[in-house]
Amino acid sequence: MAILIGDTAPDFTAQTTEGEIRFHDYIDGSWAVLFSHPKNYTPVCTTELGYTAKLKPEFEKRGVKVLGLSVDKIEDHEGWARDIEETQGTALNFPLIADDGTIARQYDMIHPNADNTLTVRSVFVVGPDKKVKLKLEYPASTGRNFDEILRVIDSLQLTASHQVATPVNWKNGEDVIIVPAVTNEQAKEKFPEGWNEVKPYLRIVKQPGA
Ligand code: BEZ
């Protein structure tokens, strides 16, 4: 059955480039990003892994642990990691799972109508409560935008602790929207500096904490 937003991210134990990991223990109260790669020694994946390694300080700043997955053997991961460092200028600095297909199937990362053996480019953002907060799927031929994944994490973390939603193309620090469930009476308490009521259902407010 497909894993949907709001579901508990299935637990698993995996062999990785940083030793054995049990996913739920690895999350350990942090946020997590689990993302899959079609195959080792492939060009798009090589660029994605190098760029994600470069973003490590950004993930750390947000309390996010990153975990990659490719259905290949651990020995192959180690060789590929050397290529990633050589070609992308940054060494892998997060665990890369060596999967035999078990986790890929558990997470529906293989789409038979796309390819029966390769995983698509899946991304799962998991919260500290181990629930899936975001799910993205790209075809093998299209590299993902990891800056967008950071942007979504900013929105997820903000909206988890304030009764706001983020508008189209929002970036951290920009104005946000008061969620419809909050009445104007309640909004006066939560947002004492006021808001701009464009329509009764569209109330723009400064980002809390910005
Ligand atoms: C890649 O990562 O470059 C790739 C993998 C599978 C199909 C196409 C591209």
Automatic annotation (TrEMBL):
Return one GO MF term: thioredoxin-dependent peroxiredoxin activity
Q: According to the UniProt entry, what is the EC number of this protein? A: 1.11.1.24
Q: Which UniProt keywords apply?
A: Antioxidant, Oxidoreductase, Peroxidase, Redox-active center
| Domain Thioredoxin per the UniProt entry, residue ranges | 3-158
Phosphoprotein recorded as keyword: no
Q: Which NCBIfam families match?
A: PRK13189.1
Q: Which family does it belong to?
A: Belongs to the peroxiredoxin family. AhpC/Prx1 subfamily.
The identity of this protein, by name, is Peroxiredoxin
What is the phylogenetic placement of the source species in the record? Bacteria, Pseudomonadati, Pseudomonadota, Alphaproteobacteria, Hyphomicrobiales
